[in-house]
Write a structure and sequence with these properties.
Order of helices and strands: HHEEHEHHEHEHEEHEH
Distance between the termini: 55 Å
Oligomer: single chain
Length: about 325
């Protein structure tokens, strides 16, 4: 499929360093920008696995493998919605054998053993109904807990943590997949298990109701996982938002936060990048070398409202 518009060489990142022996001395994964770009590429895998399925592309004709192989990962599992057979996520694991072929004798520092990548909405007939159903769940109920995909993703993440350890696992998602990643990651955080989380263009309205219920169901768990000085440990997801994206722009709104210990998240806002509305929501911008990001901590009203109840005393 050389020359296909979604082929990695044609559509993927430019001048992105691929794993080699130098990573044993200075790991590329220690660079937050590198990690952001690779996570975006892994989410693209989830999209392309479903598009390959719809187009009946298999074997050497498949496009998706071209997006994980350069980084020395392998496809460990696909997440399938049994109602329509669509693929909504993928688990990628570090491929030691492939890495050894490039004289990378061990996993670079900062590279996760396993990544759960979740795609967003695909407006095509085979996936339209189930994707839109979950989109409407966010709009109407601000929760995805009633979705079969939520339970599938949560179980997959729990299995990954049991196999690889919580410090070696990442979860990433785009758009609808970002909403799933946030809610699944938060559900696991409710059990005192914090995993690395990267979400791109998350819908602004997701999670509000979910967080309210966590106070009742998981507050006691959080009180057990506190530091020695009595301050609770924090789950800090990484959010990537373009202010021109009307679906996620509310995350960038600031105001006076009266909470003395506001909830934290790493919110990366595009300082220089796509300005058109449709382009501002595309995943492609996040693996671009040209995008310039600004980091804002504890600077989003919405983030604080969504996360603060997790750490409320007496919950």
């Amino acid at each position: 499929m050389e020359g296909h518009p979604h082929d990695f060489k044609a559509y993927g990142p430019r001048d992105l360093a691929l794993p080699n022996w130098r990573d044993l001395i200075s790991s590329s994964w220690s660079d937050p920008n590198y990690k952001r770009m690779v996570m975006a590429c892994f989410i693209q895998v989830a999209y392309l696995l479903e598009l390959d399925r719809q187009a009946k592309r298999t074997g050497n004709d498949s496009i998706a493998p071209r997006w994980w192989k350069p980084f020395k990962y392998k496809l460990a599992e696909i997440l399938i919605d049994e109602r329509d057979g669509s693929i909504y996520g993928a688990i990628l694991e570090w491929d030691r054998s492939a890495a050894l072929s490039n004289f990378v004798v061990m996993r670079p520092c900062g590279a996760p053993k396993a990544v759960l990548a979740l795609r967003g909405t695909i407006l095509r007939r085979p996936t339209f109904r189930r994707d839109i159903e979950d989109d409407l769940r966010i709009l109407a109920y601000e929760s995805l807990k009633t979705s079969v995909r939520f339970h599938g993703a949560l179980q997959a993440l729990k299995t990954m943590v049991a196999k690889c350890g919580k410090d070696n696992v990442s979860i990433a998602g785009h758009s609808l997949g970002a909403a799933f990643a946030l809610q699944v990651g938060k559900a696991l955080a409710g059990e005192g298990i914090y995993v690395d989380c990267h979400v791109f263009n998350p819908p602004s309205v997701s999670l509000a109701r979910t967080v309210k219920t966590i106070r009742e169901t998981a507050g006691s768990a959080f009180r057990r996982f506190t530091t020695s000085n009595g301050n609770p440990k924090r789950w800090v997801p990484n959010l990537y938002v373009n202010e021109r994206d009307y679906l996620s722009c509310h995350y960038t709104r600031t105001g006076v936060v009266t909470d003395p210990t506001p909830a934290k998240a790493k919110l990366f806002k595009v300082g220089k990048g796509p300005t058109r509305i449709l382009e501002a929501h595309q995943l492609q911008q996040w693996w671009s070398n040209d995008v310039e990001l600004q980091l804002a901590l504890q600077d989003s009203d919405l983030i604080n409202k969504q996360l603060r109840s997790l750490y409320a005393k007496g919950s």
